[in-house]
Amino acid sequence: AQTVTQSQPEMSVQEAETVTLSCTYDTSESDYYLFWYKQPPSRQMILVIRQEAYKQQNATENRFSVNFQKAAKSFSLKISDSQLGDAAMYFCAYRRGLNYGGSQGNLIFGKGTKLSVKP
Amino acid sequence: NAGVTQTPKFRILKIGQSMTLQCAQDMNHNYMYWYRQDPGMGLKLIYYSVGAGITDKGEVPNGYNVSRSTTEDFPLRLELAAPSQTSVYFCASSYPTPLSGRVQETQYFGPGTRLLVL
């Protein structure tokens, strides 16, 4: 079974600084997707960034980028120029390639990392 | 476009009561999901549907039922509420799309329903 581990329950960063959130996963599959979701106090789950396992290039979305190390099964999120609005729970999630169909397409989540941003 | 909507936002139930959590999406997505999030944990899949009339169990289906009579709606039913069902419930939807020999899919979440069973 696939698992996702976030080893940092809480992280803190100074406004305008850079922070990296860690995520490791375990799978025997070759085709899969990885995601970072943000959950602010409103509890809305917001997609931050996604990475296809078959792509070697790391995904980037404005101030958010990932370091995807497929061999090490590591998928860290880097937030640059941190803003107060970045304060939230961040969840790393895994999904098998949808060619497998059905519930194999569901997201498997880590336990989350709570990010605080200090002004 | 409202996206994924969920009602109610918050509900308190007594043990043994029943209720239906509503979920609707207006994006014409064929895939829909129900997750629960327990305190300090990530989300776990309860049930999912790949289209109207088709549903299947996820990781934690016990104590729940679903139906999918239309593309838009995917209600979650709790028949005999138990304290262990105290959680935040999220509905999500997606539209898997073939692209370059693979299937692209991103799940969009509703705002969640907080349920307290006492």
Explain what this protein looks like in three dimensions.
The complex is a heterodimer of chains A (119) and B (118). Chain A is mostly beta strands. Chain A has strands spanning 3-5, 10-14, 19-21, 24-26, 32-39, 46-52, 60-61, 64-69, 74-79, 88-96, 108-109, 113-118. Chain A is globular, with a radius of gyration of 14 Å. Chain A starts with a strand and ends with a strand. In chain A, 34% of the residues are buried. Chain B is elongated, with a radius of gyration of 14 Å. Chain B is 0% helix and 53% strand. The mean pLDDT of chain B is 92. In chain B, the strands form 3 sheets. In chain B, strands 2, 4, 5, 6, 9, 12 and 13 form a 7-stranded mixed beta sheet that branches. A 4-stranded antiparallel beta sheet of chain B has the order 1-3-8-7, with no helix packed on it.
Q: What order do the helices and strands of chain B follow?
A: EEEEEEEEEEEEE
User: Segments of chain A where pLDDT lies below 50 for 5+ residues?
Assistant: none
Give the percentage of residues in beta strands of chain A.
over 45%
Mean pLDDT rating of chain B: 92
Described by its quaternary structure, the protein is heterodimer
Give the overall shape of chain A.
globular
The structure class of chain A reads: mainly beta
Tally of alpha and pi helices of chain B: 0
DSSP helix count of chain A? Answer: 0
The overall pLDDT average of chain A reads 90
Please summarize what this structure is.
The complex is a heterodimer of chains A (119) and B (118). Chain A has 119 residues and is mostly beta strands.
Can you tag this structure with a few keywords?
heterodimer, A: 119 residues, mainly beta, 6-stranded mixed sheet, 4-stranded antiparallel sheet, globular, B: 118 residues, 7-stranded mixed sheet, 0% helix, 53% strand, elongated
List the helices and strands and how they pair.
The complex is a heterodimer of chains A (119) and B (118).
Chain A: E1 3-5, E2 10-14, E3 19-21, E4 24-26, E5 32-39, E6 46-52, E7 60-61, E8 64-69, E9 74-79, E10 88-96, E11 108-109, E12 113-118
Chain B: E1 4-7, E2 10-13, E3 19-25, E4 31-37, E5 43-51, E6 54-57, E7 64-66, E8 76-78, E9 87-94, E10 97-99, E11 102-104, E12 108-109, E13 113-117
Parallel strand pairs in B: 2-13
Antiparallel strand pairs in B: 1-3, 3-8, 4-5, 4-9, 5-6, 7-8, 9-12, 9-13, 10-11
